[in-house]
Amino acid sequence: MRSTLNVAWLALLLAVGCAGRQELETPDYEAIYDVPLEEMWPSVREYFTDANLPYREDRGSLVLETEWKQEFGGSKIAGYWHRYMVIGKRETPTKSKLWITRITKSVNKTLSQPGKELDWGVFRGPGGNDGVALSPEDDAARLAFPVGENAFYMESGQGTRDLTMEWRVFRGVMPKLAKKQPVSAQPQVAKPAPAFTECGQSILGLKKQAKAGGVMLLGELHGTREVPRFIAQTVCQLVTSGMPVTVGLELPVENEERITAFLQSQGGEVDWLKLMEAPFWRSPYPDGRGSEAVANMLEQLRQLRAQGLDVAVFVYDHPKLSGQKREDALTQTVQAQVKAKPERFHLVVSGNIHSRTAKGLPWDAQYMPMGYLLKDQLDDVTSLDMAYDSGTAWICAANKQSNKLDCGVKETKGKDNGDRFFVHAWSSPNLEGYHGVFYVGHVTASEPAILKGLGNPDAAPVSGSTSGL
């Protein structure tokens, strides 16, 4: 294994910054504590207490399990919850490590493989050297899910070892352990606050593609739950590492003031009413951009801003234009935003025609998409196409019989590459000008937000729905 106390201090020096900063770079090896397990464990307990992650503990086995914590906090729409199983392991008599498993649950049954539901709990009977085994939780523990307007039993769960969380705890614990070491040649480092923001499972490959000053174009299929969640998780994981992020959304520019006001608000009922009053949310042909998932994403970004994290949002669509004139207008709006704040990372989301960086379409060889125009005007543009497993999406398609748009839940055909979000770049762009893909797993349709009661004080409580994000 790699890591001594000197290596630990080097990692700590790189990690310490503003309070609550969560380092983006995660080593691909285990964090080894250069102290015995019994000496390390009290600092682990203190970390989770200071990070506001309540836990229960099996003291005899040096195992603890945190309570459920929702991504981004208590949003208006049912979402995802995570808890951590933390196991202290003895590497040698004088060295130790942690194994941390992240357990995710949601009403979204796409997480679950039939017949393979996982329930985790501290097990005090036989079941291994560490005293931990998989077993059904008792009835009391089954009721330990979040309460309030999102109170319901989450019907799927998965557990995955979380190396990112292991290193996050390591960086938070090391200052306490270092106080017990000889101080002869050790640099003095300020104690980092372990303030914790739940950003979901780390997106694989994201850290290689995201950098300050860069522009990442995401070409999406509108109308899924997964893409807005991918965006919110991406932003969360970047801003908690100290990188300022601006999100560009393909929504009408007339909505800029409303969205900015909402992001700066307290997120109360009146704030939601003002946001949802815009005609955009009530379009007779809702194409997926005004979905429940998009509304929830705005709430999640608002919550990140409320924590003091550096998140900004702009909108750039010009729906009154069409064809090349529209692409030109989209380009000008995005370009102006990027050049006004060149030090930020810009994440620009659009339908997957606009984000292409190659000239031409099958029906128009001279067509110049937004991505094609931006790459010649900006220094660092990466364009990623959406990859996904088969499922459903809220899509507007032409009805040949009525010559009108037919909007609703449609089946989508994709390829199964697992259930973990990831970003992958190719060695060279493809024929459409994409530099790689962002993968969001099995996709599920997200209905128009206005149909789910958001912004409508007379609607039934959202917690009564079974279609959470």
Automatic annotation (TrEMBL):
Cleaved signal peptide residues? 1-21
Tell me the SUPFAM superfamilies matching this sequence: EreA/ChaN-like
So which domain of life are we looking at?
Answer: Bacteria
The alphabetized UniProt keywords are: Signal
Q: Under which name does UniProt file this protein? A: Haem-binding uptake Tiki superfamily ChaN domain-containing protein
